[in-house]
Design goal:
alpha/beta; Rossmann fold; 44% helix; two-stranded antiparallel ribbon; five-stranded parallel beta sheet; 2 domains
């Protein structure tokens, strides 16, 4: 069944449902071989998807991904049925007509560049700090605004927060084992995500904060 949806009125506003999707070993198809298609393909590969790119010509970056076995490439124009049972399809050609055909064929998730109304999901602007991912979307209203907000968030949550999140995961496991008192353990774990400690990470850096956290954990376990 095609994924494209007819709108009741031209000004109907779609309310998107935010979600993070596990694409490991799931099929994905990118139709197009330009820079946008390359960016989409790289994101899908990073997420662990099995990516097929369909385009007569592809960028040097996509060529490298193909040579490394990261993607499968069909060096021709799109044909009806190419989307198959792919969970995710990206229509990223320079032809609005081709993109629309791809959207009509897609069975599941379809994103159409520059024409979000032809698909059923949009890709948010995102900030990644290791395990921390912050996604920003204006619902397709203004990608430029999304990018600006993303840049502000990048400044607010620097790369040290990725390191800190990994550290918190390890400390949490230790706290669960070493702090028997439920109230004290809960208070300690809550302190790891406080505004105060986030400010300290920004001001003093990861190393200084991690030392203080470990000292606090040791103090609790020695009482």
């Amino acid at each position: 069944m095609p994924c494209s949806r007819a709108r009741g009125r031209p000004d109907d506003k779609v309310k998107y449902y935010p979600a993070f999707i596990d694409l490991k070993d799931r099929k994905a198809v990118v139709v197009g071989g330009g820079r946008v298609a390359e960016r989409k393909a790289r994101s899908l590969v990073k997420a662990g998807a099995l990516v097929t790119v369909i385009s007569p010509d592809i960028t040097a970056g996509l060529e490298k991904l193909r040579e490394k076995g990261k993607i499968r490439h069909l060096g021709r124009r799109y044909r009806k049925g190419d989307t198959g049972d792919a969970l995710v399809v990206i229509a990223a050609t320079s032809s609005a007509q081709v993109n629309k055909k791809v959207a009509q064929d897609a069975r599941h998730l379809i994103n159409v560049i520059d024409m979000p109304s032809e698909g059923n999901f949009i890709v948010p602007s995102s900030v990644e700090r290791d395990s921390l991912t912050i996604a920003v979307s204006t619902g397709g209203t203004s990608p430029a605004v999304s990018r600006t907000v993303r840049k502000e968030i990048e400044l607010l949550y620097g790369r040290e927060f990725g390191r800190y999140l990994g550290f918190v995961e390890r400390v949490r496991r230790k706290a669960m084992r070493r702090i028997p008192n439920n109230r004290k353990r809960r208070e300690f774990l809550m302190s790891l995500a406080s505004e105060k400690i986030f400010s300290a990470v920004r001001k003093d850096g990861f190393s200084a904060v991690s030392e203080k956290v470990l000292a606090a954990l040791n103090a609790l376990t020695q009482r």
